[in-house]
Amino acid sequence: MTAPALGFEHRFVPATAPGLPTLLLLHGTGGSEDDLLPLGERLLPGAARLSPRGQVLEHGMPRFFRRLAEGVFDLDDLRRRTHELADFVEAARERYELGPAPPVAVGFSNGANIAASILLLRPGVLGGGLLLRPMVPLVPDPLPALAGVPVQINAGTADPIVTPEQSEALATLLTRAGAAVTIDWIRGSHGLAPQDLEVGARFLHRMTAEKVR
């Protein structure tokens, strides 16, 4: 279903298999609420999928928060938009009766950055994150207590936008906050590659298996 309720235009696809975490799908710059729905189904077949559209427009392209230049974020806007999106997630969990387990974010590029920001600013809203081509969104002080929250970072070996140092810095930051972080280097550029699906599916299935033990 497509719905403008809860503050965000979004799509919600109910689960068709029991016992799986809900996937929060967060598109990249210029994407929409439809972009990552097929990827979500391939990553974790049968899981419920919640996919909002970013509310910021950059030259007509939806994003989740403003930036001042490539890789330079408007931190005040990022903080505000992070809390708005976190509020949406919590309201959607109640509206769609998604159960006690928080959703797992699957974010690409700008979507990965705001997913990382939610982890850092609103701990507890997400149960984990598959972050595809993220960079450090901000460094909160103090750091949150993420207490083993699983995070998978997929970084591109030839990414012209996100440097290896940025990918490593985010992994270090989340690890310092207590998250259980794995970083994989994907053969390719900033766009998604077949290896992203393989690594992401393995991460999500491992998460699911650990929760049912």
Describe this structure in words.
There is one protein chain. This protein has 213 residues and is α/β, with parallel strands linked by helices. It has one domain (2-211): Rossmann fold (3-Layer(aba) Sandwich), CATH 3.40.50. It has five helices and twelve strands. The strands form three sheets. It has an eight-stranded mixed beta sheet, with helices on both faces. Strands 5-6 form a two-stranded antiparallel sheet. Strands 7-8 form a two-stranded antiparallel ribbon. Helix 1 links the parallel strand 3 and strand 4. The longest helix has 21 residues, at 75-95. It is globular and about 40 Å long.
Shape call = globular
First and last CA, distance? 33 Å
Q: What percent of the residues sit in helical stretches (DSSP H or I)?
A: 25-40%
Order of neighbouring strands in the sheet with most strands: 1-2-4-3-9-10-11-12
CATH-level-2 architecture = 3-Layer(aba) Sandwich
What's the Cα radius of gyration? 16 Å
Strands, total number: 12
Fourth CATH level, the homologous superfamily: Alpha/Beta hydrolase fold, catalytic domain
User: On the 0-100 scale, what is the average pLDDT?
Assistant: 95
